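Hi P.,

Sorry for the delay on this. The queue was packed all week, but I finally got your sequence through. Input first:
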Amino acid sequence: MQTPHHVLLAEANDSLRQRLCTALVDLGLTVDLSADGVDVIDKLDHHHYAVAIIDYTLPVVDGEAIIERVRLIPEAERPLMIITAQRGVTLALDHEIVQVVMRKPYDRRQVADLIAACVRAMAEIGASRARLRSSQPEARPC
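Then the structure:
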């Protein structure tokens, strides 16, 4: 089950990863950090995230392979995906999987505001799904 404030942040640049993490934690979010694609895949296999912010050019396993892995997650459990990439990197992305692309360099506050909005949206989606489940008639054996 997703928690509405659980974020996966995968960034190869140590300094940028720490700055973004600080901004997210300041918003009251729980953040798991990754520096390479293998760790991202492992975290996606063992945790559910409301939002995943993935550097497209991570070492070992790149963003394209991570996107393919996310495609296997049931839609109801799939995190909102934000891909970050340097300007000039060509991206051919499936926008059913990746909702936002952010080009580097970017302002930390812009990122924090965007992520806060994404987390709020995921919480609303979760609440809507819960209301839908509770309004469905209970199955009874014959």
